[in-house]
Sequence to fold (284 residues):
Amino acid sequence: MPEIIHEQPVMPDGPTLIAALEAKREILINMPASEVLHSARLDARTAAGVVGGSLPRIARHRVALIAEFGERARTLLDDLPTVVYATYQVAYDVQATEDDSDMRELHRGVLEEHQLLVGDLDALANRKIIDRARIDAGRSTQGYRTTVDSTFVLLSLTRSLWPTIEGRTLLTQVDLERIQAKAQAMLDRLNQREQGATRMPARELRDRALTLLVRTYDEIRRMLTFVRWPQGDADEIAPSLYARRGRRQSGTDTDGPDEDVEPTPAPTPIVVEGPNNGGGPFAP
Fold:
């Protein structure tokens, strides 16, 4: 069998991924819990990569698939890219929820800027140029949101005092713009995280997106198997999501079990109605 060439999917920009997830969110939320695939062997991002890389090859057979299976094939082919992008996005959301390293990095940057503001304003207070009590409202840095709020308080204070302190401080307007940009970026990230917590948990939404991806892709693969039966190349066009991750090197023992092969679980039966017989061409 010829080697399957995995093409790199063309990744759209962030807003497109977010829009794809929003387009599928209602379907994912309303998916019956009993139908959700919880597979430890399938990684959502990896699965989306396999399917995304197959999209150009599948598209070459669009005419034949629609000719054989009609509007059902057209709907699946049109829908598959959106399902792929939605799966990518929810996988990113899970990582953002579970990995707090990006938030820690944002906090570290804002905290450094906060300390810069406090130090400069305290120096002005030491010289009796401003009232130290006005700085106290922005000193606290206990927690992510408090750090952001305090930084904005000090920024507002500095700008209100600017006619008085300009030329007496090492701070510049460029500094203030930079500090505000960092604080705003952290505030946006905090709001995004809290908004996500009020919706369906990201891990559950990811499993539902993966389920929709597997079902959509599996049905298209069945159609391809039917259309490309004489050529026998359906697996090259749209490889199984459960295919082996790698091959043994030549010259190694081939009599033992192949540890790289994961057994394919029995798929949920999907009935594909064709125009020739009105029933599923792959029914057992």
Confidence is low (pLDDT under 50) at residues 1-6, 245-284. The chain is about 60% helix and 0% strand. The chain has two domains: 14-99+200-237, 101-197. The longest helix spans residues 71-98.
